[in-house]
Design a protein that fits this description.
The structure is a homodimer.
Chain A: H1 16-30, E1 37-38, H2 50-63, H3 80-92, E2 102-105, H4 108-114, E3 124-129, H5 133-140, E4 145-150, E5 169-173, H6 185-198, E6 201-205, E7 231-236, H7 238-241, E8 249-252, E9 258-260, E10 266-268, H8 269-280, H9 286-295, H10 298-325, E11 329-331, E12 337-341, H11 348-359, E13 361-362, E14 364-365, E15 376-380, H12 385-399
Helix pairs in contact in A: 2-9, 3-9, 4-5, 10-12
Chain lengths: 401, 401
């Protein structure tokens, strides 16, 4: 008789955003005329930059002509034109990443979930709490032991390593989803030092790096000395260039990252990952890769930075609202997220229900990201300007009643 | 210390097609002027159908306008417009599949590799030999026991079930890669009956269904009564519509497919798979889905069928060459593959080397697909017409020496 993977039965029944969608749908059914404003799921709202659209169309046209048609990509790791552009982008902020260390993917979520395939199920996994649910779920699906490092009000929602706790795999996200906090170079250096002492690997999620405006803050873990011997980095064009519906990201596995197998053989993590992807993935759509490469051109950077500035201005509007109401928050600068403390000691789902019912604004309850999220709440700056202003007007009104 | 998944160390070091690429590159370096003809990797050569290109470009344009921009897809399982089109396509040849049972993906290889995540590692996996290497590798990566059902000259390279051997998961591919053999409805019904007796699940790879011309042959396992209670089907637009570089496929998990967990709970396989994909996948690029939907329009079907006929004519040319030389083969009709017995009792890699060295034609050694492939060889009909004719001219010349 076929046996299912019973680890699945131990997972939360539904994914956070599906629960939110259900509550929102019920509200809409009961209040068909309510002017709902969505600041929950971290999805972008501005259209793709014109250079990206043109590049995708050109890529599609090439696919319609025999001489320029592209079938399977030889390596499945991404075309050189895109990997070289990404490597140059890394160099622009001081991270030395070579094109050969990059694998292009259909979005960071896939690699973030799939990377665990190359590691044994007996590793201890450390995840900061609160965190993006994929880190926890993808490890629990393989039955791995997950432990948590607390990110909380006391440490500014930036958990730091503790040598009395051993971990083999460590998930870090900076700028952080959901808390908007950003690790300094010194803080990341402490994590790198911990990973070296414990012979662990850091999986670094840099999906929000493009929102960093402070040049002193690291945009890649590879700006930290020694990180190439102990870290994998995942990044995405979803938030950088509005690719949430286009689907393209990239993972950097440094050549220097090696691990000893139980028989003492030295194993290249990049080779393992290449073997995994070579077996279970066949590369990213050619027109999508053309669009992604356009992001890294001079004109592309100009166009996407305009969009990022638009979202940063939204973040500022939300942060100023929190300031004016005396509500504690993190994020809002160097991040598209604002993470605030629910007023009057409310629980985070309780506050979610209140906001939805009273002002028809959808946010994300902090509890959905882990226990330290209880009593906290996430709003995103990825909305429309007018909606963001209107939502904050209603928010102020609700809390001044 | 971080532990790797040591199952990876037990895999063949390199993927079949990487080994071939290495030999071909070495040949090219030594013979820069040789007119190489590639009939090895099953990649298409005709450009995308015009309706597909136009639909992708229209999709890209929509992404550049705020009002029609698409971000994350709610379900990540594919837009209704595409799932409905696929469901209608199934109905057109008599398989009753509803849109809700379909999940769209970035190519059948991904789902084929990832589906194993939802099954326990203690399942016994039965794979026909020879077979597409992804079935074996993706299961060995999780440490599952893999057993083989022999497809050989005696049974026309169409392995049949044997009740004295128990299997929990069964991989079938029809029309078969690499042998080109096609199961009849009666043969598939025997496999369905076996799966029901053994409470196993069949993973049915229908990637080559569009090449079936004989209306009596099943294009989907769901044309067989009872299959919805014991089978998952994977299909792809790669070979149907030349999507090898566009990346789009679909997996059907019937609602009726349920399994008992160890505590007796009945578990829906579609729900497990949805939970897996919801965690580790974020949907297919919107412009790609637009292009895929165009394949299923009336004009789209007309255009892609022209391309399929072109490849079918190539297959006929190759098959006739084998006939004329008295070489035993399977496939060539209802399939883009021709699977033939190497002349003079040669081994398959030996024949590969001979063809490359003497006539600069690249094929795929049967041994790369399993032990029953030794002494057999695969050629694909996906090449250019002129190249196919020229390759067969050289092939005849080589063997008449």
């Amino acid at each position: 008789m076929v046996k299912i993977n019973e680890n699945f039965l131990k997972l939360e029944k539904n994914y956070l955003f599906i629960n939110i969608a259900k509550k929102v749908n019920a509200f809409k059914a009961a209040n068909p005329d309510a002017a709902l404003i969505r600041m929950g799921i971290g999805d972008v709202t501005l259209p793709l930059a014109p250079v990206v659209v043109e590049a995708m169309k050109k890529g599609a046209d090439e696919m319609g002509v025999k001489e320029t048609f592209k079938g399977y990509e030889d390596s499945g790791a991404g075309y050189d034109f895109l990997k070289n552009a990404i490597a140059d982008y890394y160099k622009s902020f001081g991270a030395d990443v070579s094109a050969d260390e990059i694998r292009v993917n259909d979005g960071a979520k896939s690699d973030c979930g799939n990377i665990v395939d190359i590691f044994g199920d007996d590793n201890v996994v450390l995840i900061t709490d609160p965190a993006y649910p994929v880190y926890v779920d993808s490890n629990r699906m393989s039955g791995r032991k997950v432990i948590f490092a607390d990110s909380n009000e006391e440490n500014g929602f930036a958990a730091m390593p503790d040598d009395s706790v051993h971990a083999d795999l460590i998930y870090l996200c900076s700028p952080n989803n959901p808390t908007g906090s950003v690790y300094t170079k010194e803080q990341l250096a402490e994590w790198v030092a911990y990973a070296k002492r414990h012979e662990s690997i850091i999986i670094f999620d840099a999906a929000y790096e493009a929102f960093i405006t402070d040049p002193a803050l690291p945009r890649s873990i590879f700006q930290i000395e020694g990180a190439k011997e102990c870290a994998i980095e995942m990044c995405s064009l979803s938030k950088t260039a509005g690719f949430t519906g286009v689907r393209c990201g990239y993972t950097v596995v440094p050549e220097a990252l090696k691990v000893k197998a139980s028989d003492g053989t030295e194993v290249s993590i990049a080779q393992l990952w290449g073997r995994r992807q070579g077996t279970k993935f066949n590369g990213v759509s050619y027109p999508v890769q053309c669009g992604a490469a356009a992001v890294f051109t001079e004109e592309g950077q100009k166009q996407i930075k305009e969009n990022i500035r638009y979202y940063q201005e939204n973040a500022k509007i939300i942060a100023e609202t929190m300031e004016s109401l005396g509500i504690k928050y993190t994020g809002g600068v160097n991040s598209p997220y604002i993470w605030f403390k629910c007023p009057d000691g409310m629980g985070s789902w309780e506050f979610f229900d209140k906001m939805l019912a009273e002002i028809a604004v959808v946010g994300t309850p902090g509890e959905g990201f882990g226990k330290n999220g209880d009593g906290w709440f996430r709003l995103t700056a990825f909305g429309d300007r007018d909606n963001t202003i209107e939502a904050m007007r209603r928010f102020k009104e609700m809390l001044s009643k």
